[in-house]
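Hi, here's the filled form for the chain we discussed.

Project: internal
Contact: R.S.
Residues: 640
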Amino acid sequence: GETAAPEDIDPYEWTVESYTFSAEDLINGFISPDRGSLNAPSLPREGASDEEWMTFLKTSNSVVAHYLEIQGMTLPEGSVVCFDPRTFTLVARLPRVAHGSLLFLSERYLASAERYLQISGLLIEGEIGTITDLTEKASEISDHSKLLGELLAVEGVTVVSRAWGEARSGQRLRIAHAVERGKAADLFLDEESTIEYSTEVFDYGTIWEIDPVLSADEVTVDVSVSVENHYRPPAKRVAQIADTEGTSVEIALIDTFTSAHTSQHSLAAGKSRLLGAWKLEGQQEPVEPARMQAVFLTVDVVKSIPVRNSSLTGLIDRIGDEIAVIPEGKPEYPTVAEEIPEGMVVRRFYIPPTFLSDSGRADRASVDSFSEPASVGEPRFTVRATAKDILASAGVPFPPGSSANYLAEESTLVIRNTPENMPFVEAYMMSITTSPEKHVIVRAWICEAKEEVFEDFVRTTRGLSDHTAQWQSLSDRDDVTIVSHCYRESRSGLRSRIETGQTYSYPNGLSLIEPGVEASDQKSGLLPRVNEKLVGFLFEFDPVLGADMQTVDIGFAITRDTAPPARELPQQPGEGEDAIILDAPATTFHESTFVSETIFRDGAIRFVGTMKPSGDERFERENLAHGVFLSVDLVELESD
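And the returned structure, exactly as it came back:
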């Protein structure tokens, strides 16, 4: 419908609005000056009765309304508010004029939410004329999103590599769409035409390394980007190094065709940017027309907050009048019953009875570490720390007119201070309460699907910090296969590791042993050198629980082999050729690697990136990719 003009909007009209309200105090609990320790109740279980929902709404409305009053927001009569601790969703039925204050509080909390970065990179190849036209247009504009869409629609333009991933600001993201190939090195030919050798490995494919740093304005992202790509398969050839008595001695060599891009940029969040373009050189045979590559990067800044729960709006619409009836006329606000000194507020906190007798705090406040110790028999004078002394030593400011008094018989601390200083008191009060230890449970899924499936998934989840709903829909699709899944519990700050697969042994060198001068009985022979490598699945992660007890910083690395290792035999002389070729067997491992560090909120499932499978021709034929999904859950360890 048509949007109403501002003058047509009734400021006293009652509306129901939804907010993201990342108030940790509502989840972990806060200390009320009148009611003691409070926290917002959890939503009833699925399929709960109407009575259970009514109980939830009554309790949630009472706790949340009281919390908002403590924050300085007085609600008019007839207001109804409720909060979902799982999704940080606060829904309120208020007059329009009151919603502005709630929006201010919501934005204040959102400003402190943790951020991480969603990164999308594209390496594109096309004819030189097409890419040249692109660079001319790109030099005139700052946002290349539209140019990228136009380029992908041009015939003959191919996507060489897609890099999807996420990372914390200041942490490196590494995505290796490559295989590990072996090649002969340190070759030696003895008099009996036996070849000594060792092998070394190199990565063949595309490797992305991205270091993003979010600037203070939280809009600009400084990135260092490295992209290395082998645009043609390695080529083996032989070169003559000697001709002895009519026998040619040749060595097998491997040539690689590489393009490498390294640069630093400042990107605007949410906008695609052409970082560079270059002509492919060093091809074995002329390619007409010549080809160029171009690399694009898009970085989105995502707040680590859950997706809002839309069902609470309907709950208030349905039974809100049973909690409070909307009065007629203009909203009426309750009057303040207690007078306090001008510029000061009074708060009461219920605390442990051992507050003043706790030696860990009282001693620190009452003992002078620099005073001379008293002599034997000399009288001692002990000054007992007051509540104000303890709080002041913890960093709480006490301007003129402020006070702190502890009522031992009621275990109550009465504080008179400015509103600006009350958060210091609250922080200290929360620090002396103990919370149950939490363990971190991490699950990982690797799904196989066509690359365009993950492309659509990225498009629909862009900017979201929780992909649970989209993951459930994706995992039910017939064209998506879960090829690996693991579950692991860990303590915060400790590394966990899961590995499964074959310990694959393979020769990587051969040496000749000659008899020693003194050990005449020692026989000569061959000494093979053998290496071992896990072929299968490896998942390592380091979780660190945040101070809010709801978020987890997690660094992780996933390596997975998508096909058995391939053995490449030494190069042999052609038929009738009198030659010795210095070469050795080598092994190729079809493993894909993904390394990153990001932040998760309790209960979230997210798509964190893709891995490129290799070793089976159907991967290329069907344009398949492997998507990596992670979930993080926190479990409290409570005693009976």
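Let me know if anything looks off before we file it.
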